[in-house]
């Protein structure tokens, strides 16, 4: 293969803007994983257009001097059929095609060819509040961190309802969630929400078992739940400062099995409809989780399908079909758990609407899936299993980053008319008011690394950005779902402008927003954005200000050298000085010589609340002036990532006078 693969970039720009080329060896490795591009057909794989746009489709014919005699037929999404003749080796479709997914077929004397035509809107959906240029605010929440007197040691959907209610009472407009994708119930310690088994289904650990009617009505379940030993275990789990996923999942699965046993004697109509509506995709997830559970009960270290006996390595194998037949009730149980999770999430969404929240809550879409989960197990054509995605080398990670996620093949994605991407959006736009897309740069290009190779030996693989953004806008409008795009890092030229044109909100981190004069004035922030002080990958306000993240990073060997650490520390001091100067120009900011006080963190949050951005998000960790981060990038088992709970219960948080004062101040500043 020559260095001209249509899906491969030969170079990338580093954080200093320098052009860095992949070696010939690395390029060939990635090109091999992409394979040779398929031969062009008469029709394109898929055609994506804007509404009102003239649709001109030139045909790819070997002999361009020959006029093809053929008829075309376009079947619209609503079933209406349009037809016509090929003229001058091209198809001209009407420019008034309706929004949606239409199927074009071309019939010659010898064969038939097919192409999906997708007609998309000018922009993504925005709620009326944003169309009226209102300034909204809310909380950014890691759901598992919530404490309450009722949960089983981890935040759940009932806690989310309670939290939504409290935020709405304070005038808040939204609550942002971490990804709630399906993880691995049989490997509960695999807790990263950004390394899911499947992005099409939900994490069952968030189910509130007590809220299930079948659990409430089962005498056996209630006897078990009210037993003194069970209550002692629940109290122990609630008291822990870090989620004990193994114990929590064990308790929940036992309670859920009791609930399911009772449910089986109840009306199954709604559940059967759910099964019928979700078809094979639901069966795949139910089978994966059931088989994973069944194998883990017999053998150790069954982390994912690539650790299982070879006969079970593929969903489509005879051994898996035999398992489905012999363990049909276990498969049905795990399908039912998805049914329950979706019901409870739907109730959260309905509550947000009843509370009058303009956005409600947003879901978070992770950048990819784990290489040993349900999605890769079932679709080995779509996912490239001998490659991983990550990030190129930079000052923090001179050897690059490998995220252990399997990429989708861009050509297969196109050949399927983008259906896997459409399914993904639909699954994650359900029952919410907005969708945050983590690392939306991945819609333009992904850093691929050969499996087992160093992450520095990678190259960027191109994806059809314009088509994917157009489909994102279409599904956004259909679901009435606002889109928030996290685009941090080295952003491809023109990317931010394309997002803005599509009505997609950017995602600003206050600490990083600097201009030539210092901390960027809040009035200069783009309206079409969400602004926050921190994220799940950054320290809390207290941690940022006292450099606690540097202490932890040094302790766990995150930094490649002391020189790099000193450069970062120097940059932090300079940024803090610029931020303090900007804040003190307009308001008081407490002294931090003796430590970072709650008064300081509240003053800083109140200051940023004046941002011109449409959305301002604040973390409960920073309301509470917590120090410990929820995640340290660059670590795995060294630090208890994705486990640290909030220091107080929901009731205690909203009973705190200082926090209430902060939220009142934010509400006033967002409604000037």
Highlighted features:
672 residues; alpha/beta; five-stranded mixed β-sheet; 22 helices; 18% strand; globular
Largest sheet geometry: 8 strands, parallel, barrel
Summed up, the helix count is 22
Oligomer: single chain
Radius of gyration: 26 Å
Low-confidence stretches: none
Question: Distance between termini?
Answer: 61 Å
- State the helical fraction: 25-40%
Global shape: globular
Proportion of beta-strand residues: 15-25%
Find the structural class using helix and strand composition: alpha/beta
In round numbers, the mean pLDDT is 95
How would you describe this protein?
This protein is an alpha/beta fold and 672 residues long. 38% of the residues lie in helices and 18% in strands. It has 22 helices and 26 strands. The strands form seven sheets. An eight-stranded parallel β-barrel has the order 10-11-14-18-21-22-25-26, surrounded by five helices. Strand 10, helix 3 and strand 11 form a beta-alpha-beta unit. Helix 8 crosses helix 10 and helix 13 packs parallel to helix 14. The longest helix has 28 residues. The radius of gyration is 26 Å and the shape is globular. The termini are far apart. The model has no long low-confidence stretch (mean pLDDT 95).
Brief rundown of the structure:
The protein is an alpha/beta fold and 672 residues long.
Topology:
Elements: E1 11-13, E2 19-21, H1 24-34, E3 46-50, E4 55-58, E5 71-75, E6 81-85, E7 90-93, E8 100-107, E9 112-120, H2 128-131, E10 136-141, H3 157-169, E11 174-177, E12 181-182, E13 198-202, H4 213-217, H5 219-226, H6 228-239, H7 245-263, H8 269-296, H9 318-326, H10 328-354, E14 360-365, E15 369-370, H11 374-378, E16 387-391, E17 401-406, H12 410-415, H13 419-429, E18 434-437, E19 445-450, E20 458-462, H14 465-479, E21 482-485, H15 495-501, E22 505-509, E23 514-515, E24 518-519, E25 529-532, H16 541-546, H17 548-555, H18 562-584, H19 598-608, E26 615-618, H20 620-623, H21 650-655, H22 657-670
Parallel strand pairs: 3-9, 10-11, 10-26, 11-14, 14-18, 18-21, 21-22, 22-25, 25-26
Antiparallel strand pairs: 1-2, 4-7, 5-6, 5-8, 8-9, 12-13, 15-17, 16-17, 16-19, 19-20, 23-24
Helix pairs in contact: 3-10, 8-10, 13-14, 19-22
């Amino acid at each position: 293969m020559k260095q001209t693969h249509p899906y491969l970039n030969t170079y990338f720009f580093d954080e200093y803007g320098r052009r860095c080329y992949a070696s010939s060896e690395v390029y060939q490795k990635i090109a091999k994983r992409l394979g040779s591009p398929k031969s062009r057909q008469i029709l394109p794989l898929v055609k994506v257009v804007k509404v009102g746009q003239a649709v001109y489709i030139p045909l790819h014919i070997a002999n361009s001097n020959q006029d093809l005699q053929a008829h075309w037929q376009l079947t619209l999404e609503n079933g209406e059929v349009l037809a016509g003749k090929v003229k001058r080796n091209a198809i001209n479709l009407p420019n008034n095609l309706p929004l949606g997914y239409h199927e074009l077929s071309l019939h010659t004397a010898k064969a038939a060819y097919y192409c999906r035509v997708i007609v998309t809107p000018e922009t993504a959906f925005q709620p009326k509040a944003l169309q009226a240029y209102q300034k909204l605010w809310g909380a950014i929440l890691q759901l598992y961190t919530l404490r309450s007197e009722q949960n089983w040691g981890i935040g759940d959907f009932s806690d989310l309802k309670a939290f939504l209610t409290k935020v709405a009472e304070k005038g808040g407009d939204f609550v942002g969630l971490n990804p709630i994708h399906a993880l691995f119930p049989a490997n509960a310690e695999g807790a990263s929400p950004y390394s899911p088994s499947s992005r099409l289904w939900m994490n069952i650990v968030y189910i509130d078992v007590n809220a299930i009617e079948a659990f409430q009505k089962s005498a056996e379940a209630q006897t078990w739940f009210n037993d003194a030993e069970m209550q002692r275990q629940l109290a122990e789990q609630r008291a822990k400062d870090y989620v004990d996923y193994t114990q929590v999942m064990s308790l929940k699965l036992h309670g859920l099995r009791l609930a399911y046993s009772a449910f089986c004697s109840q009306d199954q109509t709604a559940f059967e409809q759910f099964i019928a509506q979700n078809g094979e995709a639901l069966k795949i997830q139910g089978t994966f989780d059931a088989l994973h559970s069944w194998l883990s009960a017999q053998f150790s270290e069954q982390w994912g399908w690539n650790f299982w006996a070879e006969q079970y390595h593929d969903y489509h194998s005879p051994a898996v079909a035999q398992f489905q037949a012999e363990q049909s009730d276990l498969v049905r149980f795990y399908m039912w758990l998805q049914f329950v999770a979706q019901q409870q999430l739907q109730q959260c969404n309905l509550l947000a609407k009843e509370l009058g929240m303009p956005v409600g809550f947003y879901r978070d879409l992770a950048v990819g899936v784990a290489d040993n989960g349900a999605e890769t197990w079932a679709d080995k054509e779509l996912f490239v299993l001998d490659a991983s995605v990550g990030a190129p080398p930079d000052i923090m990670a001179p050897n690059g980053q490998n995220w252990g996620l399997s990429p989708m093949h861009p050509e297969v994605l196109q050949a399927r008319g983008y259906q896997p991407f459409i399914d993904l959006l639909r699954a994650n736009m359900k029952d919410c008011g907005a969708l945050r897309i983590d690392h939306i740069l991945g819609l333009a290009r992904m850093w691929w690394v050969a499996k087992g190779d160093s992450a520095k030996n990678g190259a960027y693989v191109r994806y059809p950005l314009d088509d994917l953004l157009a489909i994102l806008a279409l599904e956004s409008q259909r679901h009435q779902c606002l889109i928030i795009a996290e685009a941090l890092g080295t952003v491809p030229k023109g990317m931010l402008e394309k997002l803005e044109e599509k009505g997609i909100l950017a995602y600003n981190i206050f600490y990083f927003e600097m201009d030539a004069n210092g901390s960027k004035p809040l009035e200069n922030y783009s309206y079409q954005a969400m602004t926050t002080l921190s994220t799940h990958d950054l320290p809390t306000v207290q941690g940022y200000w006292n450099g606690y993240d540097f202490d932890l990073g040094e302790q766990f060997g995150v930094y490649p050298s002391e020189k790099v650490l000193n450069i970062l520390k120097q940059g932090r001091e300079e940024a803090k000085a610029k931020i303090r100067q900007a804040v003190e120009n307009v308001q008081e900011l407490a002294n931090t010589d003796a430590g970072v006080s709650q008064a300081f963190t509240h003053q800083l949050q109140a200051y940023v609340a004046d941002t011109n951005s449409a959305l301002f998000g604040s973390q409960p960790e920073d309301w509470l002036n917590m120090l410990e981060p929820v995640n340290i990038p660059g670590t795995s088992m060294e630090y208890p990532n994705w486990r640290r709970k909030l220091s107080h219960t929901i009731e205690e948080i909203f009973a705190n006078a200082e926090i209430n004062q902060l939220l009142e101040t934010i509400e006033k500043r967002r409604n000037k």
